[in-house]
Amino acid sequence: MADNLKKILLVDDNRTNLNDGQAALSGHYAVYLAPSAPKMFNLLNRVIPDLILLDVEMPEIGGYEAIKILKADDRTAHIPVIFLTAKNSIENELEGLTLGAVDYITKPFSHPLLLKRIERHLKLEDYHHNLQSMVDEKTSVILDLQAAVFELLAEVVEYRDDVTGGHVARTQRYIGLMLEEMRRRGLYSDQIEGWDFTLIQLSSQLHDLGKVAIRDSILLKPGRLTAEEFEEMKKHTTLGAKIIARIEGAKDRAFVAHAKLMARSHHERWDGKGYPDGLREEEVPLEGRIMAFADVYDALISQRPYKSSSTHEEAVEIISQGRGTQFDPFLMDIFLSIVDFWPDRPELRVVDAGPEPTPVAPAAGEAKSGS
Fold first, then answer.
1. Domain containing 298 — which CATH number?
2. What is the pLDDT of residues 255-299, one digit of tens each?
């Protein structure tokens, strides 16, 4: 059989029909024959055809039952099926088409008609495949553009708040490491199971977006803020969430939804003493609880006009003291087990991953207060 020929699988319990179909199709297609539905399923373990010609009335498993099995299997659901039958009624044809067949041909069939029908459906299948490829390509371009826009917005924030240069890129990397360790240990697995970690990291770029709406006199002040100024600065959480909500528009895209949660909740605390909403424990969105570790660690190791930078060890010690008060105590186990291997530490740029830490995180659903 020529490698470039489309593959047709003909399934019929009548040997004469198999021979007739093979005679009609040979020379045009690579033809595979099966005398029953069970034999067809066995053959499908070795060959995935481009189209199946399926007899309706067969012993053991009839055509209608067979197509249900085909359409329920991800490997074969996409294969176009044409029913072959001696029954010529509107009810039978409608039932076959309802079950997912693309056409319905009565026997005995005309060779030229059979070839023309197969040719038409294979061309339609090629068209659908090419159309899907075009859609996938366009979608990829759009997602790349969205990623570039998100990165640009994050850079705008950093240009305004010039004391935090590189903060966004570093926190992205920290979040990625925490997420991977959470997945490895099964922590909050019921919540992160459907998360796309790349999109989570992309979304985290906008956690400080609200700072673009904060006055320069506050944002760029080279000293500690007054109580009144700090209240204004705290508004960057709600302002960021509002800006992102406008980006979201009519469609609720996952990466924007994550970004909105991070922007609003990354200054909430496990004990309920954070802002802007005073949420406590698992009321705080998981995205915000994860973001808090990366955000605070990077703030501690970064120098500001009003403070010197902490060493890596000092930053870890300060954060560890916030277990169960400022920070999720179960995420704290994740943070402490991997933070020594984080990139961008003040005194270290390239590190050996070292030994794998001993799992200590609770199973999903066990993370409750009081532990």
1. 1.10.3210.10
2. 788 989 999 999 999 999 999 999 999 999 999 999 999 999 998
270 and 324: one domain? Answer: yes
Q: Are both 180 and 260 inside the same structural domain?
A: yes
What would the pLDDT profile of 122-156 be if each residue is shown by its tens digit? 888 777 777 666 766 665 655 666 666 666 666 66
Tokens of 69: 């099995």
